[in-house]
Design the sequence.
């Protein structure tokens, strides 16, 4: 009987240690938690939202990414321009290589109000001093365009500075869901 108790205890001890290691690996390398600071991604993300991000999937247009600039600051922004593209905003319309692209994620925020634009006119040729976004770099904007410090002020983001892709808000519970 005593041997059976020791055997069961050792089994459960091994399972607890294994579960702890799995949680550590998943939390540290697969889905990493992070707290949002600032309002540059509002309505998508708000101040103090708790999110998880991952480091393993390929970056596509309109993904929300986390990156760290050489000044040490960490940012969360949306990818608007991909390597080799020319980006323009003209009268609140996104143009990629001269073709109009819809930004459905902005929803009602982008309703035109006479002369009050949501996204001011710009051209990556002027901001980056070259027409196309460099290889292995991305052009990012915050969803709250009027308050966002983004590629319009600090330029393109090299892929080497990208930490990961934001995937889900897990707290507060009323904001729980996937990031789109």
Sequence:
């Amino acid at each position: 009987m005593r041997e059976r108790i020791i055997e069961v205890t050792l089994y459960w001890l091994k399972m607890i240690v294994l579960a702890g290691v799995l949680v550590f690996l998943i939390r540290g390398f697969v889905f990493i938690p992070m707290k949002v600071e600032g309002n540059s991604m509002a309505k998508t993300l708000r101040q103090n939202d708790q999110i998880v991000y991952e480091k393993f999937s390929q970056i596509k247009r309109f993904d929300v990414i986390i990156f760290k600039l050489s000044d040490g600051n960490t940012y969360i922004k949306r990818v608007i321009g991909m390597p080799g593209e020319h980006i323009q905003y003209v009268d609140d319309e996104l143009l990629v290589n001269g073709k109009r692209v819809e930004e459905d994620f902005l929803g009602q925020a982008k309703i035109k109000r006479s002369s009050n634009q949501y996204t001011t006119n710009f051209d990556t040729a002027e901001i980056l001093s070259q027409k196309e976004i460099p290889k292995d770099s991305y052009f990012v904007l915050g969803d709250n365009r009027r308050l966002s410090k983004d590629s319009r002020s600090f330029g393109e983001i090299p892929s080497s500075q990208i930490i990961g892709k934001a995937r889900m808000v897990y707290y507060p519970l009323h904001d729980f869901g996937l990031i789109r």
In short: The chain is about 20% helix and 30% strand. The chain has two domains: 1-30, 34-178. The mean pLDDT is 87. The longest strand covers residues 162-171.
